[in-house]
Amino acid sequence: MRKNSIKNIRINEEVYRELANLIRSGEIKDPRISEFTSVVAVEVAPDLKTCKAYISVLGDDEALKNTYLGLKSAEGFIKRELARRINLRNTPSITFIMDRSIEYGVNMTKLIEDVNRADDESKQ
After folding, report:
1. Largest CB tally within 10 Å, which of 8, 29, 31, 98?
2. For the chain, how many structural domains are there in total?
3. pTM for this structure?
């Protein structure tokens, strides 16, 4: 199976949907996981053995670190739940990668608004 095949794209979407539901629904009982945690993207390898899950946390570095540790400790539970919910030949082992894209986007939006506000004030 090629990396960008229709089957691989569908598997990525399904794993993404179920992982986001697991994190959002609060089924993972670890208190270290921030409530502002989002799944940005999921890449399942063509052999279905491994999976990279890009996770974004809105908050400081401490919240990012605690969420990573919480997800890492719940990895077995998450894999078991994915196996139960998705019918795949192999359930992939998940590697969590912390992604700062949402935080970066929020900061860029704030900077753009500050520049626009300063520009409006200088025109008056």
Report:
1. 8
2. 1
3. 0.78
| Dihedral pair phi/psi, residue 40, rounded to 5° | -85, -50
Domain CATH for 22: 3.30.300.20
List, edge to edge, every strand of the sheet that includes 37-44: 37-44, 50-57, 93-98
First to last CA, the chain: 61
Cα dihedral value 32, 35, 36, 39, nearest 10: 80
Q: Which class for 124: exposed (0-12), middle (13-18), buried (19 or more C-beta within 10 A)?
A: exposed
**Residue 2 pLDDT greater than 80, yes or no:** no
Q: What are the structure tokens assigned to 17, written together?
A: 């949907």
The answer to whether residue 62 is domain-embedded is: yes
DSSP state of 33: S
Specify if 55 maps to a domain: yes
How far is residue 63's CA from residue 61's CA, in Å, rounded to a whole number?
5
Mean pLDDT of 9-31: 90
**Does a structural domain hold residue 1?**
no
